Amino acid sequence: MDELKLDPQVLENTANLIVIYCQKQKLIMDEYLRQISRLQSEWDDDQTFGKVIQEIRQLEKSVNDIMDMIRFKYPQYFKQLAQNIRERPKLDT
Asked: Each residue of 26-39: pLDDT tens digit?
């Protein structure tokens, strides 16, 4: 384990990528819901639209909750790990 070299900058970049990924997933779900909602006028004669849109809203909420949890937890972990690496004493070999 002592020979494992972790670059703090790579860890911070990983944290940033996680944030960007989560934001993108939330945008995708928002757009998905918007596009489905646009179909309402074509779907008015069908009684199932309300159920479908309700399920999609619940799915969007679940995805957003998961993405928020990931976005707040994992970047902090990687940034803290990077900070720990920067602060640990250098071993003379």
From this structure: 999 999 989 988 88
Q: Could you give the residue ranges of the DSSP H alpha helices within the chain?
A: 8-38, 40-43, 49-87
> What does R_g of the chain's alpha carbons equal in angstroms?
21
Going by pLDDT thresholds of 50, 70 and 90, the confidence category of residue 50 is: confident
CA–CA dist 11, 75 (Å, integer): 9
The dihedral of CA 58, 60, 63, 67: what is its sign? negative
Q: Quick count: other Cβ atoms within 10 Å of Cβ 71?
A: 20
Q: Which amino acid is at 22?
A: C
What the chain holds in terms of domains, given with CATH numbers, is 8-87 (1.10.287)
Distance of alpha carbon 84 from alpha carbon 86, whole angstroms:
5
User: Are 6 and 15 within 8 A, CB to CB?
Assistant: no
Reported pTM: 0.75
